[in-house]
Amino acid sequence: MTDLSRQAVVIGAGQITIRDSDPSRAAGPLELMASALLSAAGDARLTTLERLTHCFVVHSLSLRHPEPARLLARHMGLREPRMVTAGMGGHMPQWLVNRAAEMVATGERPVVAVVGAEALATRRLAKRAGIALDWPEEPGIPRTWPPMDSDFGLHTLEVASGLTSAVAAYALVESALAHESGNGTADHMASVAALMARFSAVAGNNPYSWFPVARTANDLACVSEDNRMVCHPYPKLLSAIMDVDMAAAVIVTDALTARELGLEPEHVAWLTGFSDAQETRYLSERTNLTRAPGLVDGSRVAFSRAGMQPEECDAFDLYSCFPSSVQVAMESIGIDYSDPRPLTLTGGLAAHGGPGSNYVTHAIANTLSALREGRHSHVLVHGNGYYLTKHSLGIYSSSQPPAVSLARPGTREADMSSSEYPTVPLLPVGEPTHATLIACCTPFGRDGAPDPAICLLEASGRRYLARGDSGLTQLSCSEDLIGQAVYVEPGDPVSAAHLEA
């Protein structure tokens, strides 16, 4: 029999999207967070925010202040809850829900809000118009929980070689996926566009989407004036859009508190299983860029806790900053390309919009709606931080589970280490070297011209990064070069890669 006081449930959610705002009078991130939190509280039938014991504020790029959580508390007049500013990463909202579930499992009976917002669209418009925004702003980096990584998941040699943007990192993975498919880059990307059109179709029916338009695979794949190439093989419409004005909040507590609030069992989302995992820290040092052993282990733990098999899930919300994230997650969880089950209930970060670290809060809110409405019975939500580096998963069900999996803070599953996964050391190019190209991507400028290709190379059990010469760069945009022999010349700080004859 389930001990309701130790079973975590999501009892309320709120979402806000404001498009085409006038920057001179637009709501800032604090106002957006407050609106989403009040909406979630009303949805949860909380008559007062004083019922909250904790408020976890997801890191916001828009809120440039060392104490975002304190600012929100002051803005809303919150005195009761423990205010916490969370770290950075797309996995963070689910990670925070998982921590709330651990508190529930210990019998604390907390009422926890997870809230976040971005207003980067307004920031961009204001800068363009020369408008000074009247938003609180102070220098300083927030003290977060967990602490933010000082290197933001980037190796010093990745930084030196220009592998610093998310689109480049995920495009690098995509090149390895394309080679692995054996279909050639063009055919592989056609199948990728068809996959992501499924996300766009969901976004088209989501009133909170930044782009509530269902685009076809052809729309997504074809490079045009409105869909410029960003980093080959990704054009703009296959890339996360961060310049949005969005907020979302969810409220987590125990099932007994939910019942005391007058909520029926079918009005809540039962968190039946969850986990967190990490991959090898640096993308360039992973033995296989197309595999995520940490996510494989994490999904196994989550399903084990839920007492379910993956095939029993009837929907997913996979993190979708770029298509390679979706494909790696599908492979890790065991979802085939032909699987008809929904891969998103939100629409993906390219179509719905990617509000910084807070996208998954929207995904959890949409999962709650889908379960309440009877559209699905079991939904897995996946959050991905950095470069397929950190994962947090939650399995949400529409009905009460037969038993509670009591996950205590500090268990291995709650913070899975990547130390057990093998690595290939990334080293500087010390002398001219013959190597094999194992992944590459080509950044493009806004003028449509390619920058030198970023090449990940391997020789004698060591990895190297270099930038391709003009010939390699041009060919990388039309041919699958993975597996080709490359001659590398050391440079300071950037080495040069040449295809061998």
Q: Total number of helical segments? A: 13
What is the CATH homologous superfamily assignment of the largest domain?
Thiolase/Chalcone synthase
**Biggest sheet strand line-up:** 3-2-4-7-1-8-11-10-9
Low-confidence stretches: 409-416
Percent helix: 25-40%
Q: State the assembly state of the protein chains.
A: single chain
Share in β-strands: 15-25%
Shape, please? globular
User: Which CATH top level class of the largest domain fits?
Assistant: Alpha Beta
Written overview of the protein:
The protein has 501 residues and is an alpha+beta fold. It has 2 domains: 4-150 and 242-401 and 411-415, Thiolase/Chalcone synthase (Peroxisomal Thiolase, Chain A, domain 1, 3-Layer(aba) Sandwich), CATH 3.40.47.10; 433-499, OB fold (Dihydrolipoamide Acetyltransferase, E2P), CATH 2.40.50.840. Helices cover 29% and strands 21% of the residues. It contains 13 helices and 16 strands. It has helices at residues 29-43, 68-76, 92-105, 120-129, 156-160, 166-181, 185-204, 217-221, 255-260, 293-306, 323-333, 359-372, 470-476; strands spanning 8-17, 54-57, 82-85, 112-119, 229-232, 234-235, 245-254, 269-278, 315-317, 378-385, 390-397, 433-443, 454-459, 462-468, 485-489, 496-499. A 9-stranded mixed sheet has the order 3-2-4-7-1-8-11-10-9, with helices on both faces. It has a 5-stranded mixed beta barrel with strand order 12-13-14-16-15. A hairpin with a 4-residue loop joins strand 10 and strand 11. Helix 1 (29-43) packs across helix 2 and helix 6 (166-181) crosses helix 11. The longest helix has 20 residues, at 185-204. It is globular and about 75 Å long. The termini are far apart. The model is unreliable at 409-416 (pLDDT under 50).
